[in-house]
């Protein structure tokens, strides 16, 4: 058995909060925009604010301007762009990194218009995004080429790494991907070479320090907080 097939894409500490038939376009958009029923537990919410860096990584079957969910519905590039704009207006992110591995992947970020979004795709419009290698035991491909080479690159990233986004753009050249990966940086306020990969992958969580009294409700949700805590 090839050691390549033994890569664990989830790692040892990843919690899967939505699985199976819970993974729908509606639920995905509700999580992003925060439009969830009051009864939704914290584990199924995106508890972000205007200091949060958000990573969204999508992979699956798609085409020009859409990505399939469960082979029964699709999310379009317009729906995704509008959801990101709602997030920005509601101060739900500081910077957002969007990565998609699907056929004609670049079509999914061409409609974005909100600030501070950087986007990467495994293929250009009109191109297929190809699988890497099959598991002969079950007869299906387990991973696409772009995701495979990106994961191999990220395996060497640690919290002190100084690799930047320009390095990420080069992880799967056409000779390996058999497609033409693309990226979009015009909406991002920082130069890509100044953005560390650890700003989104493998970073150490920042802690806010305040001397103010914090009042907690029965659900332990912070309701009063110093507006500009010091970052460590």
TrEMBL record:
Keyword Signal recorded: yes
Gene Ontology cellular component terms for the protein in this record: GPI-anchor transamidase complex
Description of how the protein assembles with itself and partners: Heteropentamer. Part of the GPI-anchor transamidase complex, consisting of PIGK, PIGT, PIGS, PIGU and GAA1. Interacts with GPAA1. Interacts with PIGT; this interaction, via a disulfide link, stabilizes the expression of GAA1 and PIGK and links them to PIGS.
Keyword vocabulary terms for this entry: GPI-anchor biosynthesis, Signal
Molecular function per GO: GPI-anchor transamidase activity
Record organism: Callorhinchus milii
Keyword Secreted among record annotations: no
Record GO biological process: attachment of GPI anchor to protein; GPI anchor biosynthetic process; proteolysis
InterPro entries for the chain: GPI_transamidase (IPR028361), Peptidase_C13 (IPR001096)
Pathway: Glycolipid biosynthesis; glycosylphosphatidylinositol-anchor biosynthesis
Entry similarity comment: Belongs to the peptidase C13 family.
Record-given protein name: GPI-anchor transamidase
Origin: domain of life: Eukaryota
